[in-house]
Design goal:
This protein has nine helices and no strands. The longest helix has 64 residues. It is elongated and about 95 Å long. 81% of the residues lie in helices and 0% in strands. It has 289 residues and is mainly alpha-helical. It folds into two domains: 155 residues, no CATH class; 110 residues, no CATH class.
Length: 289
């Protein structure tokens, strides 16, 4: 698990998009102008460029989200440690320094950062505010505000810290329950996507293939095929592109519904897009069954 700053996220996005656009642009230029023989089809190269453009940002988002989730998970344990340390009569600042020495990674590294800022002359309030800004989660921000207020007000710190720890635990329980309730909706998006792909494959291998065969038989027999000419390759191309778009936007919606962030949906988009592409690759373009 690792923290990925916003600046590095932007750089990853820019680098990935540039590489993806260059690959897709070269595929389109070759298709329309150069006509050079390639191992992969232009459509395959366009899809590959899209994957290259999305995979690094998706990986970065997953790593960063896991880091933030791990921080949030350790906050109650950190507050209990503060409560136990404050019961001995030491100050809250000293209690944070002792908590930083405990093995509650990745929170320990952030606590050491707070302790270092305090040792350099920064106030506890400033150090906690910077911690909340770095982690950027609601629980971390709420914890920082509460600990800061406890430091200002004084009184029975141990009891207050135990209450805050219970409060944070309750918030985490509520969030877990919310995710468990939302999870079926994410599953529905996956099911709808695979039904869409199944219908596409079924139409190509039955209806459109039969129409193409009938058209060929009628034409070879000197008859007149009543209706528009069936271009099976064009139909396969359109349906495959629709599948990729369905996977892209369906995944983004799944991330927004399930985790409250469109960026979190990139991993779902990659899974759906890759599944759709591989289905067309093995069941339509290079049939194995």
């Amino acid at each position: 698990m690792m923290r990925v700053p916003r600046t590095e996220k932007r750089l990853v996005w820019i680098f990935s998009l540039v590489i993806g656009v260059l690959l897709e642009g070269s595929a389109l230029l070759n298709f329309f102008f150069f006509k050079m023989p390639l191992v992969l089809r232009p459509d395959d190269l366009v899809f590959l460029g899209l994957i290259i453009a999305l995979f690094p940002p998706a990986a970065v988002n997953v790593l960063d989200a896991r880091w933030r989730a791990a921080i949030d998970k350790k906050l109650p344990e950190f507050l209990i440690g503060l409560s136990e340390a404050s019961s001995t009569g030491i100050t809250l600042t000293r209690a944070i320094e002792l908590a930083a020495k405990r093995k509650i990674e990745p929170l320990s590294s952030e606590l050491r950062r707070i302790a270092n800022l305090i040792s350099w002359g920064r106030s506890l309030d400033d150090a906690l505010t910077e911690f909340a800004d770095r982690v950027e989660t609601r629980l971390a921000r709420r914890t920082a505000i509460l600990v800061s207020e406890i430091n200002r007000s004084g009184g029975d710190i141990q009891e207050v810290l135990e209450t805050v720890s219970k409060h944070i635990n309750e918030l985490q329980t509520v969030e877990m329950e919310r995710k468990s309730l939302i999870k079926p909706y994410t599953t529905v998006i996956y099911i709808a996507f695979f039904i869409f792909v199944f219908i596409d494959i079924l139409l190509i291998r039955t209806l459109f293939s039969e129409l193409k065969s009938i058209q060929s038989l009628v034409t070879e027999g000197g008859g007149l095929f009543l209706g528009s000419a069936v271009d099976l390759q064009q139909i396969e191309l359109v349906l495959s592109q629709l599948t990729i778009l369905e996977g892209l936007f369906g995944g983004l919606v799944a991330g927004k519904i399930g985790e409250g962030s469109i960026g979190a949906g990139l991993k779902h988009s990659l899974i759906l897009m890759t599944s759709g592409f591989m289905t067309f690759f093995f069941l339509v373009w290079h049939r194995i069954v």
